[in-house]
Amino acid sequence: MPHNEQAAAVVPIVDLKAQLAPLRDELFAAIRRVVDSGYFILGPEVEALESVIADSCRCGHAIGVSSGTDALLMALMAIGVGPGDEIVTTPFSFFSTAGSIARLGARPIFVDIDPDTFNIDPDRIEAAVTSRTKAILPVHLFGQVAEMEPILDIADRHGLRVIEDAAQALGAEYRGRRAGSFGDIACLSFFPTKNVGAMGDAGAVVTDDFQLAERLRMLRNHGFAKKYQAQVLGGNFRLDAIQATVLRVKMQYLDVWNESRRANAAQYGQLFDEFGIVSDQVKLPCEADGRRHIFHQFVVRVGKDRREELRRLLAERSIGSEIYYPLSLHLQECFSHLGYHAGDFPVSERATAEVLALPIYAELTADQRRHVVQAVADFV
Questions:
Q1: Which of 46, 170, 219, 314 is a good FRET partner for 117, with 20 to 30 A between their CA atoms?
Q2: Taking the model in full, what pTM does it have?
Q3: Beta bridge partners of 64
Q4: Each residue's pLDDT tens digit, 75-121
C-alpha cells in the first residue's frame, strides 16, 4: 500500500487533533481573554460555564470543579458520607466511582450489572440495602443512562440519597430527561477524551437542591462560607478559568458531536449487517428502550477468549482499540479488605473478559468506519 494510503487508513481510538483543528482560532481567542484578564481560578469564566452546564443538564445549579473524581468526592462529602456508611454501586466502572467512596472511610457495596447495557442491575439493588446504606451511586456507563426509575423508587422507599456518576453521559437521556437531572447530585467529567473535554482535568457537579449547591460551593473552596472562614471541612476542588473558557467554547458543539457519535454507531450497525458479522461472534452495544445513548465509547463484546486476537489484528491495520475495563472493582487489590472474591459478580467479570472499545469519535469518516468493520469482518 502506498504510504499516503496507509496514512489515510489510520484510525486512532480518539482523535483530539481532528476535533480541535476547526476550533483553533476560537479556542486561542478565549484563552487569550483569560490571560489578559489575570483571573485564573473560579471567577466570571467559571460562572458562565456553570450556567451553560446547568442548562444542558436541565438542572438548577452547576458547580465547576477540578476533576470528575473530585466531583464524586465532593458529592459524597456534601451528603455527609463517612466511616461506617455504605454506598451501593457497580463493580464495572472507572476506579474513581468506588475509590471516592473508600477515601471517605465508607464501604462500596457492589451490585452486579445488566449484561446488555453494562449498567447496574436495578433488580439486584434492594437486596444490598442495609441499615448502614446512605446512598445509591449508579453509573451511566459508556454514554447510556442507567435504569433510573426503579433506582429512584428504591431510594425513595428506603430514604436514600442518589448520586449519579454521569462522567461519561453528558447529553444522554432517559425517558426524555437528561443525565444528571435524576439524583440529588450528579457528577460530570471533562477529561480531555470525554465527549466534551478540557485541555487538562476538569469536572462539575449539578443539582436542583439550593442548599446542596451552597454546600458544594463551600466544599470546593476549603469549606469557606466567607474568605478565610471555614464553615465545613472542604478541599481545594476549584476549577481553573482557562479550563472553563475552553469548555465554554466546546459546549456549543456538545449536541452536534453527540449526534455525530450516534450516527457513527448506527453506521457501524449497518456495516456489520452488510459484512455479515453476527452477534455470537462480535456483539454490538445496545441502546435500551427509552434511552438516548451518546456513545462516549462504542463497546463490543468479543467471546470465546478471542479479544486479544482481535486487538492484534486491529493494531496491524492501524486501528486503535481499548479495554474499558479489564478488572472489576471488587477484585482490585486495594479493595481486598472488603472481602469480595472472584465469582461474586459474574456478569461484571465476564464483561471485563469480553469488552473492547472501537473508535467512535464525532470526526470519524465513512472510510474509517468501513476500514474498522472490514478488519472485524476479516477477524470473524
A1: 314
A2: 0.94
A3: 204
A4: 999 999 999 999 999 999 999 999 999 999 999 999 999 999 999 99
> Which H helix or E strand runs over 29?
helix 24-37
Nearest to 250 by CA among 19, 88, 34: 19
Question: Which has the closest alpha carbon to 180: 70, 76, 55, 69?
Answer: 55
Residue-wise pLDDT tens digits, 143-178 = 999 999 999 999 999 999 999 999 999 999 999 999
The whole domain housing 238 covers: 20-112+119-251
Q: Could you tell me the strand order of the sheet in which 86-89 lies?
A: 61-65, 203-207, 185-189, 161-165, 133-137, 86-89, 107-110
Strand partners, 319: 11
Q: How far is CA 333 from CA 326, 330, 337, 338, 347, in A?
A: 13, 8, 9, 10, 20
- Say if residue 242 is in the same domain as residue 305: no
Q: 235 with 271, same domain?
A: no
Measured CA to CA, the distance from residue 157 to residue 301 in angstroms comes to 36
Locate 10 and state its grid cell: 489510520
Answer whether residue 271 is part of any domain.
yes
56, 178 contact by CB (below 8 A): yes
What local confidence, expressed as pLDDT, does residue 1 receive? Answer: 39
Residue 361 lies in a domain: yes
